[in-house]
Amino acid sequence: MIVSDMTMNEFEQALATTRVAVLPVGSVEEHGSHLPLGTDTLQVWEVVRRAAERVPVLVCPPLPYGYCRSTRDHPGTLSIRPHTVRALVVDIGRELRRQGVLGLVIVSGHAGGIHMAALEEAAERLLEREPDLHVAVVCEYHWAREVGREGVVETPDDGHAGEIETSRVMAVAPHLVRGTSPEEYPRFERPFVARHKRRQWPGGVWGNPGAADPDKGRQLLEGCVERLVRLIRQMEARVRG
What pTM does this model have? Predict the structure, then answer.
């Protein structure tokens, strides 16, 4: 049940089947020289879409922007401020409740710490303003890392645009993968905050894209889909009381 593809009558009828909606959130962010700027949105949309084929749920159009801190110096990254992320999610959540939704699952494909905190703060505000609305916030990329640790991923410290994400995009949209970038890890000098972040992270890769494989990507995606299906069912149970 893709909300943007529905008519108003179809949306109204869908509420008789489920009162749970999923809001995917991505970003426009560099992912090395080999993956598209929309990688986070692409991944989360695929996970949400596949989950919706297995369990009834209203699927909202994805928010394609998020807050990107460490990658802002890299070409193509279009970051919005955390309070903008919060405001968008709160407004969408309140509109969904007004339309009859009682359970909202916010699923992010972008894993930035401040970005995720903004989504959690938005959820808190929704709980304050909508007493009968249930909200969950998850990062499906964190799920992918969990699956990767089960023997799927070889790179010990794999992260942004590395083995995990390259494998997943290979599985979903191989035509968007432009070879592989060199293995790389940021050289940020913690606890100092880098003024010129690209100097300490020139290629924008955290991990080893060269170890990526579409079969790994399919396993990672399946693991995320299974987790989201379970969460949607848990939310449905809460809504139904």
Answer: 0.95
